[in-house]
Amino acid sequence: MIRINLLPAREARRRVELRHQLQLAVVVLFAALGGGAWGYMAQQNELAARQQELAGIEEEIKRLEAVIKEVQKFETQKSVMEKKVSAIEDIKLKQRRPARVLDEISRNLPDQMWLTSIKDAGGGLQIVGKSFDNVGIAAFMENLERSPAFGSVELIESKSELLQGRQVVTFTVVARLGSPGE
Question: Can you tell me the distance from the alpha carbon of 76 to that of 70, in angstroms, rounded to the nearest whole number?
Fold first, then answer.
């Protein structure tokens, strides 16, 4: 009987199969490494793009923060200017009123009468003067009451005295001021 040694053929086939499996494993390994490398590169590119986008956004934030600071500075300046304008308007109003009040007193002062003092009396004026008669005092009070610069006018005191040999009446009147807009 003839004997055929089949072992080397099996072993040869086994070696070929092992070589094919090894080659397949190497191909799979390289494919996996290539896929991993490709995925890593894609992630790195995505990361770089996001970092660049983030840097752009941070730059925009810095620019906008500078703009916000500038706007706040202008708002502060605007507020200061508005306060100054308001103060100036107040001062103008307060400057006009005393001049107008003194002008009204001067225009309503009858002949034969003169004033010796005008003082602030809490919302009004205390006017002290002298006249040759009570009729002049009454006319002065009526004139002031008709004036828009004044509200009510009250006679506080009236007394007769001798001045340089003539009889005069010394009087004190309190005149409430009218509204500032008038």
Answer: 10
The reported pTM is 0.50
Number of domains in the chain: 2
Tokens 């309190």 sit at which residue?
174
Query: Distance (Å, rounded) from C-alpha 95 to C-alpha 77?
Result: 26
Mean pLDDT for 78-89 is 94
Spatial CA neighbour of 113 closest among 90, 99, 133, 96: 133
Rounded distance, CA 27 to CA 36, Å? 14
Looking at the structure, do residues 125 and 88 belong to the same domain, yes or no? Answer: no
- 78 phi and psi angles, rounded to 5 deg: -65, -45
Structure tokens at 40: 């890593």
Residue 141 lies in a domain: yes
**Domain ranges, residue 131:** 112-177
Q: Which two tokens stand for residue 142?
A: 């009526």
Domain boundary among 59, 76, 108: 108
pLDDT tens digits for range 16-41 = 888 999 999 999 999 999 999 999 99
Q: Write the burial class of residue 2 (CB in 10 Å: 0-12 exposed, 13-18 middle, 19+ buried).
A: exposed
